[in-house]
Structure formats: C-alpha cells, structure tokens
Write a structure and sequence with these properties.
The chain is mainly alpha-helical. It has 17 helices and no strands. One of its GO terms (cellular component) is plasma membrane.
Amino acid sequence: MPRLCQPSPRPSLPALLPPLLPGVLLCSGVSGAALALQSLEERVFGQAWLEALVLAILIGVAVRSVWTPGRRWKAGTDFSARTLLEVAVMLLGASIDPATILAAGPGLVAGIAGVVALALAVSYGIGRLLGLPPRMAVLVACGNSICGNSAIAATAPVIGADGDDVAAAIAFTAVLGVLVVLLLPLLVPLLGLSAMQYGVFAGLTVYAVPQILAATAPVGALSVQVGTLVKLLRVLMLGPVVVALALLVKPEGHAGERPKARPPLRPPLRRLVPWFILGFLALAGLRTAGLIPDAALAACRNAAGVLTVLSMAALGLGVDVRMLSRAGLRVMGAAVLSLAALGAIGLGLIRLLGIH
C-alpha cells in the first residue's frame, strides 16, 4: 500500500538558488550604483555626503517609481530585504563594544520599556482623536512605537484586524519609514546631539531594524552600535505587548456574525523573539568575553556592511510612493503625529538619563 502521509522531500540548496538569483542580482546592481556614487562623492567633494546605504534606498525607490519588478524578481528581492538583512544584523553583534553597553547605563533598558508603553498610549490616543477605528489605532500605535510592519503583522491577528486595516497601516509606514531614515540625521546639528545621544534617539524613533542601520551610518560607528542595540531592545517589547493585547482585546464580529474566536495567548516564539536577535545577543556576548579574534571581527564587520547595502537596495525596490494615497489622510496624520510624539518622548528620556 502507498504511504499516504509520506513527507515531501525538502528542496536542496542548488534548487533554491535559481529563483533567488534574478532579484539578488537586481539588488546587487542597485548596490553597485550606490557604491559608485559614494566613491564619486568622495573624489569630488572629499567626503560622502550621502552614504551608500542611503543612496541604495533612493536608487531603489527611483527604480520602483518607474518600473514595477514582476514575479521573476520577487523571491530574490524579498530574500535580500529579509534574510540577508537579518544575517547582517546578527553579524553586527560582533561589533558591539562592551564599553558602549556600559556607557548607555542600566536605566536605559527600563527607559526603553517606558518609552514604548507611553508611546503606545499617546499614539493610540492620537489615532482615536483623529477618528480612526480602535483596531486601526492599535495597529498604527504598535507600528510606530515598536517595529513598524513587523509589529503590525504580529498584532493584527491578535486584535482581529481585517486585511484593509493592515494594508493601510503597512502602506504608510513603509513610505514614512524611508523618509525618517533620510531626514533623521539632519536633526543632529539642529538638536546638538552627540553620537551616543543620536544613537539612542534613532533607536527609539526609527521604525524597522534595517532602517536603523541607514539612519545611523552617516553619523558614525558609535551611533550605529548604540542605535542597533536600542532598536533591538525595543523590538523585544513586541512579545509582552502582543501577549497583553491578546489578554485585553475582546474579539468582535460584524453584524449577524458570531464573534471571532480568541486567538492563542502565546504566539509563536519565533515571531516574538526573531532568530537574528538571539544571534546578535550571542555574538555580542562572545565579543564581551573576548572570544572573537580580531580577524573575525573585521570579517563580520565587512560582511555586515555589504549585506546591509544589498538589503537597503531591496528595501527601496519594495517602496511604492503611490501607496501614500491609499493609506488615507487620517492614517497619515495619525502616523506623522505619533512619530513626532515618539521623538519628543525619546529626547525626554535622553535628558532624563543624562546620556552624553
């Protein structure tokens, strides 16, 4: 008799590569153009006013505005935007200087939790004042306060949000997140922020993990290290927030329908604590213990830099500026005002903790 439940064989690595190749090559082309422009800046002006990370985003957005990559490119660009970026973030753990963590102070961890909690409440209040439905207000608040699209995707099934709400929230945060990356470094001279202060500020403000790398690289290595650490600690707040929402939010249904069943109270661990964060913390621990050789540190740093530029190109290729018109004015207003409030709260924390 044939075995009806025989598991299907896993595809081999050579079988996985061809579908990824077109998109990865496209991202490589955009990255190459960004690196070439950075080199040209250095030759003409003596320094790069726009880093390759930022240029890769801008070139990707420009390409996406005039040409929409088809299905042939999607697997590779998604792989570059997610998996390669996750590997880059993990490798950055080896670059974390123990002195950086000590300089940030033990109060920073508690401060990050407080910022997230306060930002959630303020953002939700702004959304409701602007007339957003409760679940849409929760999505915008979580996206702004924690980690952008990832927080929206993790929160939506827990609160019973429908597809239209999720699409509207993600559409705007995708575009607004890129604008934040481009404009945030301009605040350094305006606000008189040091590299340490800006790293904390960016880590508390920028939406997504990949974007923190592009937002802090123009300021310096210290800002990258501190910003990445703060951002990852902020991402870890997603777990408690999702569990709290699962306990607090009552399922609702449309008229004439049964209420939706309550989602499980314990979402999958991999969605609350991604593998690359665990890898980042592990490498940071090994660096602190002095178990990573200097040659390996340099290799990790260089690999992280190359992979990050590739992922920034993929990020730009995935941003359609026309999505702004689909999000709606109220969602746009709620997202912008919530982001401004988050920035003000972040600056308040920096002053409160006396970070220099």
